[in-house]
Amino acid sequence: MRILNALLLLLAAACAAPSLDLTPRLAMLEPEGSFGFNDTLGNQVSQDLPDNLGLEKDSSSLGLRADLDLGAPHLTASIQGSTHDGEGVLDGEIEYDGQVIDADASVATDFSLTGYSFIATWDLIPSDSFELGLGLGANVLDIQMEVQSKDDPTQSVAFDELAPVPVVAVRVGGDIGPVSLSALASGLSVSIGDLDATYLDLDLMAKWRLLGEKNGFAGSLAAGWRHTRLDAELDDDADQVDLDLTFSGPWFGATIGF
Hints:
The structure is a single chain. This protein is mainly beta. It has one domain: Lipocalin, CATH 2.40.128.90. The strands form two sheets. Strands 1-4-5-8-9-10-11-12-13-14 form a ten-stranded antiparallel barrel. It has a two-stranded antiparallel ribbon with strand order 6-7. β8 and β9 form a beta hairpin. The protein starts with a helix and ends with a strand.
């Protein structure tokens, strides 16, 4: 009888009325870590993001998160961009794709990171007020960077990489009256072709419902914290790049529920 009751609870959760939340948001992400390039002798030289490349905190970047709750299954798709620029001084010579910038050169850097995420989790505990789920998904990172010497404008290095990473995910959340709290963590260590990567993404969210009802048309204020970490090695024969990137910071937005 206990097994039958548990199966009935799972079936009821899976057949619950679907709901959709759309959350446009502004994020203020701060870069940390380093880019490692080879020099002309083949030695690895790491360039610190804020110190050597001069990358600064992004004042605001627009993103969008969509949550489709089908009862036990919960799907989340999101896109978040982050752009940074600045000026610094290289800690050694760098070479990539046949282009070289001299050691100790003053440089101007333009950097952008766009993350695309799709996560599907399945609730382990059927409940209207608490959520604990496990699942799978995929994250794609679009990394673009251009470094140009201010001492010699003919010297520049451009890096453009699209990195798909399959992930496992954990979701936890709960409601206390009009306030809901949730955390979605995903990550994995993978080796795909020329890319060896360890990836971690943490998306924290708090919502305060001002209008409407839960699982119906509603409007909420939303805020949270995003933390993305990528530790990767890219080796395409002639060039080797080591990435140690962390982007984290608060975000603010609003949620429209249907």
